């Protein structure tokens, strides 16, 4: 049988006891209670009462009475079971529970919070995915940071994650770019600022195309040349890709992110024609004039290939091929998904992409199903990042460069750590960990659908819900453990941890595996961030209330040192799962 963590076992025990009394409760019905209520775990009995035609409170009272009089529990103190309105309230047995939590951690300290929920199944995570010839945007920053966190979290939940960076390196926009480059391109400017320059060329193309109708035709011709492997077109395109990738790699390096694969959209080129044919032959796709809503991208009146999705409840069809035979983002998406299914045989496909592609991913999911693939698809969506007013956002008309944002964060962190007693090189390294950590934490500590506002002061505050506060909590734990000689005795009874602040902290720490699992199930890293923050607060309250290094006895001191160690493991692992590093000293 697999190892369950203490809280899971306690929930299971509660459910079993209730089932033994004839009520069909399962583990997941048992709630973990926090706050005002006088309980550790609770079971709502409203539905069961309704089914039996009884009053919820009466049923709860009856169950509580039976449980109190029945046999004792393992992790629960059943003699303290009570009823409150329609809830059955359970109490943990503090002695048994402390022992169980400490044993859970000791069983494998390196794997604290790990579970085998994923059962070794594969999940492909599509994240980061910036576009060649465009600057790496703040939107792609979110995808990168959230995607990397999910990769870590799902791995910790027993999945086999495969990360794939779906680089935007193909499509008719490259015809436009090649056309613009042939007309106006300057090698020196390209070398000086590749993605910035290419982006400016692209913008210029669109401006001039408004006056000069020849440009669109020329661009289509360039894309055709690219598709048939014309040497000049290929060579230039390859250079654009290589130069862009070099810039992206520099950003990944700054962020400390490594993605398993980078298979750009162009990688699927050979699969596009056959995919469209197959979709047509299967009757999934049709040739039809594009719907009005498809916009000016399609030549009026000329037929395209599209997948109607009305029967799937989606009004807008998914267009697979333009009238001139060119593929689209969606065509490459479907080909990519098929490739991933063949190659990695995943149990799930995950896409970390902004809210603005919500409709598109619904269309894609429906189309994939119509093509006969039954794999679950999850669009892990997220909102925009808003930058503070001022230097970064007001440089007239210029795109915000992600590198500037990162440098700003690290620069500000450098000021915060300026007066530390350490070498300049150590301060630089510390500023990097704190600055990058602050950016990632600001992103990951919010529920991801919402927009993130970068507020530097809050992000770098040492005493708020911020990366530095949590990093500092870890550093503080390490320093306490160092003072204790790093090898505390292990022969103590965890039952000694009996102060109220202690019980609260143990309880908090015991929730970590749940937080990790919840984050993995809902693809929501903020559940871990929030848990780390609450742990740090409970730790501070406890540390202020009880002597640790100066505890009354050696045994008590050892027991408390273990809580320090477990706190460090919890916050440190949590931060690591979020992709945030912890400095040695701070
Ligand atoms: N390159 C795309 C963009 O910037 C994001 C790609 C996301 N991944 C995907 N499989 N569609 O909008």
Structural features, described:
It is a single chain. This protein is an alpha/beta fold and 586 residues long. It has three domains: 6-92, Gyrase A, domain 2 (2-Layer Sandwich); 122-374 and 381-391, HUPs (Rossmann fold, 3-Layer(aba) Sandwich), CATH 3.40.50; 403-577, Isoleucyl-tRNA Synthetase, Domain 1 (Orthogonal Bundle), CATH 1.10.730.10. Helices cover 53% and strands 8% of the residues. The protein is built from 21 helices and 13 strands. It has helices at 6-20, 46-52, 56-69, 94-107, 138-156, 173-184, 187-192, 194-211, 214-227, 231-255, 269-281, 329-344, 358-370, 402-416, 424-444, 456-460, 467-483, 500-510, 512-522, 526-545, 554-577; strands at 31-32, 41-44, 82-84, 87-90, 122-126, 160-164, 286-288, 304-307, 318-321, 348-352, 377-380, 385-386, 452-453. Strands 1-2-4-3 form a four-stranded antiparallel sheet, with helices on one face. A four-stranded parallel sheet has the order 6-5-10-11, sandwiched between helices. A hairpin with an 8-residue loop joins strand 1 (31-32) and strand 2. The radius of gyration is 29 Å and the shape is globular. The protein starts with 5 loop residues before the first helix and ends in a 9-residue tail after the last helix. Arginine binds at residues 126, 129, 131, 166, 168, 333, 351, 353.
Counting DSSP H or I runs of 4 or more residues, the number of helices is 21
Just give the CATH class of the largest domain: Alpha Beta
Number of domains: 3
**What are the bound molecules?**
arginine
Strand order, sheet with most strands: 1-2-4-3
CATH topology of the largest domain: Rossmann fold
Q: Using the CA coordinates, give the radius of gyration.
A: 29 Å
Structural class given helices, strands, pairing?
alpha/beta
Overall 3D geometry? globular
Instruction: Note the gap between the termini.
Output: 42 Å
Low-confidence stretches: 391-397
Mean pLDDT: 94
Number of strands: 13
Question: What summary fits the major beta sheet?
Answer: 4 strands, antiparallel
CATH architecture tag of the largest domain:
3-Layer(aba) Sandwich
* Helicity level: 40-55%
């Amino acid at each position: 049988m697999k190892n369950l963590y203490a809280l899971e076992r306690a929930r299971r025990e509660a459910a079993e006891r209730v089932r033994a009394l004839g009520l069909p409760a399962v583990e997941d019905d048992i709630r973990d209670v926090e706050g005002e209520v006088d309980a550790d775990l609770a079971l709502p009995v409203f539905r069961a009462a309704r089914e039996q035609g009884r009053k919820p409170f009466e049923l709860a009272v009856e169950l509580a009475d039976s449980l109190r009089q029945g046999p004792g529990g393992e992790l629960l103190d059943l003699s303290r079971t009570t009823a409150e309105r329609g809830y059955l309230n359970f109490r943990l047995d503090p002695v048994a529970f402390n022992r169980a939590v400490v044993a859970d951690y000791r069983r494998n300290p390196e794997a604290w919070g790990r579970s085998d929920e994923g059962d070794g199944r594969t999940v492909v995570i599509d994240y980061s995915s910036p576009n060649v010839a465009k600057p790496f945007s703040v939107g792609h920053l979110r995808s990168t940071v959230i995607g990397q966190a999910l990769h870590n979290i799902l791995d910790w939940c027993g999945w086999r994650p495969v990360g794939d960076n779906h680089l935007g390196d193909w499509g008719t926009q490259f015809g436009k770019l090649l056309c613009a480059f042939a007309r106006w391109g300057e090698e020196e400017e390209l070398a000086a600022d590749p993605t910035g320059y290419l982006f400016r060329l692209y913008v210029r193309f669109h401006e001039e195309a408004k006056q000069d109708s020849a440009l669109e035709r020329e661009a289509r011709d360039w894309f055709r040349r690219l598709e048939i492997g014309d040497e000049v077109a290929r060579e230039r395109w390859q250079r654009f890709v290589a130069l862009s990738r070099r810039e992206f790699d520099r950003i990944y390096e700054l962020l400390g992110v490594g993605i398993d694969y980078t298979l750009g959209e162009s990688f699927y080129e050979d699969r596009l024609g056959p995919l469209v044919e197959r979709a047509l032959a299967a009757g999934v796709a049709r040739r039809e004039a594009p719907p009005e809503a498809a916009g000016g991208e399609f030549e009026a009146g000329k037929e395209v290939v599209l997948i109607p999705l009305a029967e799937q409840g989606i009004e807008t069809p998914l267009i697979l091929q333009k009238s001139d035979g060119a593929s689209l983002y969606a065509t490459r998406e479907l080909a990519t998904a098929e490739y991933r299914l063949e190659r990695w045989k995943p149990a799930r496909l995950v896409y970390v992409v902004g809210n603005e592609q919500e409709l598109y991913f619904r269309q894609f999911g429906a189309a994939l199903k119509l093509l006969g693939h039954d794999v679950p698809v999850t669009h892990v969506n997220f909102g925009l990042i808003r930058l503070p007013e001022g230097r970064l956002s007001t440089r007239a008309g210029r795109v915000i460069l992600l590198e500037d944002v990162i440098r700003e964060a690290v620069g500000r962190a450098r000021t915060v750590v300026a007066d530390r007693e350490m070498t300049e090189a150590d301060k630089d390294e510390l500023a990097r960990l704190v600055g990058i950590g602050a950016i990632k934490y600001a992103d990951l500590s919010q529920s991801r659908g919402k927009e993130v506002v970068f507020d530097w002061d809050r992000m770098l505050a040492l005493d708020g819900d911020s990366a530095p506060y949590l990093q500092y909590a870890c550093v503080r734990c390490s320093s306490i453990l160092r003072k204790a000689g790093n090898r505390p005795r292990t022969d103590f009874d965890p039952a000694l941890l009996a102060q109220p602040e202690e019980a609260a902290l143990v309880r908090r720490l015991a929730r970590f595996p749940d937080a990790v699992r919840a984050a993995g199930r809902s693809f929501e890293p903020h559940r871990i961030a929030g848990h780390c923050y609450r742990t740090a607060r409970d730790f501070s309250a406890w540390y202020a209330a009880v002597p640790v290094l100066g505890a009354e006895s050696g045994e008590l001191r050892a027991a408390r040192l273990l809580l320090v160690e477990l706190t460090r493991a919890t916050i440190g692992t949590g931060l690591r799962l979020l992709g945030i590093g912890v400095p040695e000293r701070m």
